Predict the structure.
Amino acid sequence: MTDILDRMPYARFLGLQTLISGDEITVTMPFQDRLIGNPMLPALHGGSTAALLEMTAMAQVALIFPAQRLPRPINVTVAYLRTGRPVDVFARAKISRAGRRVAHVQAEAWQEERSQPIASLTAHFLLDNQN
């Protein structure tokens, strides 16, 4: 299987890397100076963290429900829980419910400790049923 994130230009720009274990994807966003949003702290830009979460969720849906097109987001909500420090960020997503047309997904991003997420996402994705 080709890397799902290779189909997403912004994922390539962020340098996202995936590790697939069975039916679960872990996505890593390696730290780069251009990801800093607040140089005074320094802290990661919230947009890059949100993009990481959204693309992780999208990749998880695409892995479980393979189709010609990537799943399309219907709505996305991100909660910022902690300041993202200038180190690598990891993310995983879980499909909590899926029907014929829509999947509900939750994702979390963390840095050193998975038990201390820096952000979480709740989203719905439209599934491509035109196989």
Q: What stands out?
A: The first helix runs from residue 9 to 14. The chain has a mean pLDDT of 93. The chain has one domain: 4-126.
